[in-house]
UniProtKB/TrEMBL annotation:
A GO cellular-component term linked to this record: intracellular organelle lumen
Gene Ontology MF terms: propionate-CoA ligase activity
Protein name as catalogued: Propionyl-CoA synthetase
Domain Acetyl-coenzyme A synthetase N-terminal: 5-59
Domain AMP-binding enzyme C-terminal: 516-594
Length: 634
């Protein structure tokens, strides 16, 4: 099949408003937009101003009304607990009506924020959609974050209520959520007065009298009473959710997603980009706490009338490296979306792909990888094992959908290993040098996107228009700065090589080294510190902390490491995967005092490095090399 990509991309470029107006026909609107795009609205313009709509109606109710009532909407498959459960669209609607009634009874109204701090259980999805139903703004916090991270998000989003659960389950341990929830509520300045808590049988918790409502009994009561809460029309430009993502400091950025543009973009992506039809089974093996989970576990597949899989497990160890193939064959999955790290983990345990042959994968058509750079070796291994196209695509929490991809529905283009292919409609990409000049093809530079961003991309940061401008729009006027470095080749394929800020990517999770440095600096013996990401065969990168101790302090390195690791786990959470501390006498700096993190990373990764001309004292880099060797990185 000849790809329609160029024709479709050109049609978007010729007339973006006509393009998105056409795409908007996939959505039910309560009232139409006054115009497709208002360049004077918001920070850089707003999509579909004046329109009213409801995301829950589009994701659930309209499918019940239009013949999908008995189709599976959500399949919960939890190899970690042994549980499996299917919800049809009609059953899902019943769950949402009841939970929406509970939220209402707790005083949640349109525009109120609700934090969702939950493991991968169906109730997490219900909580998101029930918020959407009543026009409340959800903010999901990933379960691997510690109490302090949760407290930061409570203070920034000032929620009326938190929906949580008694525990999450990780291989080999049950994670008690309740102490984290209670700790965060206590730490936060904003006082949360109501929680709805799901009791899980693996570890029940005590409910706080007067504050906590038991999820199951409240929902059951609402069902018994036949409570029906209709979908509340909201403005297309009203926020659907706020999702916090790592910034360059410990203060995360609250990425705002609107209702209208988000639906239009996601609905468009399901066929054109992912090649999936309504009624088919789509699986994003991520977590609802990440943007991939928001967009491709919950909203996009449901908006498109697909069946989505909610998988509570890991690619390996639950129980083995064949879990993914079992899920694909058992539920008839046509497309899987996950992070390359998951495939590196599987390959690490089953390099010959012996598990693959044990399952019927005949319905499976495409594997999509994103969240971090897909290394060619991993792509080739997956292609060889699965005999389907393996598609790398690049996006960010901020965009909510792919920026560049090899578009399966439009017709696959030739694959270039290491490249997430070509820009999607909505994205006019440029590569600029630091002074803002376009660089020649093939030259590495700052990857930026011409404003306005397309529907679905963030219109701003929560309560922080100025931070949004400063972080994304200021440096290259007229463009959105992705903070990724890359280049475009002679065929227009993009290659994303690294971040230009201090964000690192650990097992597909986006983490701020600046945030970790803030925690290391809290240790009483640490005078100065630097955290860098170093290469890791499975996780892509892992953090490594260099610490300079206070004058006169001498510590056993192993003891010190234990304390610092525990501190990061306590402050940020296990997801930081912070395990390594390297004590050093001094940190390498430029003469103006900037720590040479980039050079330290090259040394740790055994890459070629040049002595920076501005270095204060070249001998320090020798000391760093020796310290790394002593720690086993030499
Ligand atoms: N709640 C509590 N703790 C969590 C958690 C959660 N939801 N998710 C992860 N953690 C913990 C892990 O248990 C681990 O703890 P440990 O240090 O005690 O072992 C720590 O956080 C680090 O987790 P992770 O980096 O995920 O490492 P892992 O060794 O547990 O698993 C992979 C590695 C590759 C199997 C896993 O990261 C994975 O499946 N990743 C691919 C999919 C993905 O999630 N992508 C993200 C967006 S697309
Ligand atoms: P997140 O906001 O967590 O989705 O992380 C976004 C960042 O992950 C991007 O800015 C990139 O640095 C990286 N990333 C995501 N997908 C890819 C990809 N396909 N190739 C290279 N880097 C990627």
């Amino acid at each position: 099949m000849v790809s329609r990509y160029h024709e479709v991309y050109d049609s978007w470029k010729r007339d973006p408003e006509a393009f998105w107006a056409e795409a908007a026909n996939a959505i039910d609107w309560h009232s139409p937009a006054e115009r497709v795009f208002d360049p004077a609205g918001g920070v850089y313009g707003r999509w579909f101003p004046g329109a009213t709509c409801n995301t829950c109606h589009n994701a659930v109710d309209r499918h019940v009304e239009n013949g999908r009532a008995e189709q599976a909407a959500l399949i919960y498959d939890s190899p970690i607990t042994g549980a499996k459960k299917t919800y049809t669209y009609a059953q899902m609607k019943t769950e949402l009506e009841a939970l929406a009634a509970v939220l209402r009874d707790c005083g949640v109204e349109k525009g109120d924020r609700v934090i969702i701090y939950m493991p991968m259980v169906p109730e997490a999805v219900f909580a998101m959609l029930a918020c959407a139903r009543i026009g409340a703004i959800h903010s999901v916090v990933f379960g691997g974050f510690a109490a302090r991270e949760l407290a930061t998000r409570i203070d920034d989003s000032t929620p009326k209520l938190i929906v949580s659960a008694s525990c999450g389950i990780e291989p080999g341990r049950v994670v008690a959520y309740k102490p984290l929830l209670d700790g965060a509520i206590q730490m936060a300045r904003h006082k949360v007065e109501t929680c709805v808590v799901l009791q899980r049988e693996q570890l029940e918790c005590e409910l706080v009298e007067g504050r906590d409502t038991d999820y199951a009994s409240a929902v059951d009561e609402a069902k018994r009473a036949g409570r029906k809460v209709p979908c509340v029309p909201v403005a297309a430009t009203d926020p659907l959710y706020v999702l916090y993502t790592s910034g360059t400091t410990g203060q995360p950025k609250g990425v705002v997603r609107d209702n209208g543009g988000h639906m239009v973009m996601l609905a468009w992506s399901m066929w054109n980009e992912f090649g999936v039809k309504p009624g088919e089974v789509f699986w994003a093996a991520s977590d609802v706490g990440w943007v991939v989970g928001h967009s491709y576990i919950v909203y996009a597949p449901l908006l498109h009338g697909c069946t989505t899989i909610l998988f509570e497990g890991k690619p390996v160890g639950t129980p083995d490296a064949g879990t993914f193939w079992r899920v694909i064959s058992e539920h008839g999955v046509v497309a899987l979306f996950t992070a390359p790290t998951a495939f590196r983990a599987i390959k690490g345990q089953d390099s010959k792909g012996e598990f693959v042959g044990r399952y019927d994968l005949s319905k499976f058509r495409t594997l999509f990888l994103a969240g971090e750079r897909a290394d060619p070796e991993t792509i080739k291994w997956a292609e060889n094992q699965l005999k389907v196209p393996v598609i790398d695509h690049w996006w960010q929490t901020e965009t909510g959908a792919p920026i560049s991809q090899n578009p399966i529905g439009l017709g696959q283009l030739p694959v270039k290993y290491g490249s997430p292919a070509v820009p999607m409609p909505g994205y006019d990409m440029h590569v600029l040098d630091d002074a803002g000049h376009e660089v020649p093809r093939g030259t590495l530079g700052n990857v930026v996107v011409s404003l306005p961003l397309p529907p679905g991309a963030l219109p701003t940061l929560w309560n922080a228009d100025q931070r949004f401008r400063d972080a994304y729009l200021e440096e290259f006027p007229g463009y959105y700065k992705t903070a990724d470095a890359g280049y475009v080749d002679e065929d227009g394929y993009l290659f994303i090589m690294a971040r230009t800020d201090d964000i690192i990517n650990v097992a597909g999770h986006r983490l701020s080294t600046g945030g970790m440095e803030e925690v290391l600096a809290e240790h009483p013996d640490v005078a100065e510190c630097a955290v860098i990401g170093i290469a890791d065969a499975m996780k892509g990168q892992v953090p490594c902390g260099f610490v300079v101790l206070n004058a006169g302090v001498s510590r056993d390195p192993a003891e010190l490491e234990k304390e610092v690791v525990a501190l990061v786990r306590d402050r940020i959470g296990p997801v930081a995967a912070f395990k390594t501390v390297v004590p050093v006498k001094r940190l390498p700096k430029t003469r103006s005092g900037k720590i040479l993190r980039g050079t330290m990373q090259k040394i740790a990764d055994h890459e070629d490095w040049k002595m920076p001309a501005t270095i204060d004292d070249p001998a320090i880099l020798e000391e760093i090399t020796e310290a790394l060797k002593a720690r086993g990185f030499g």
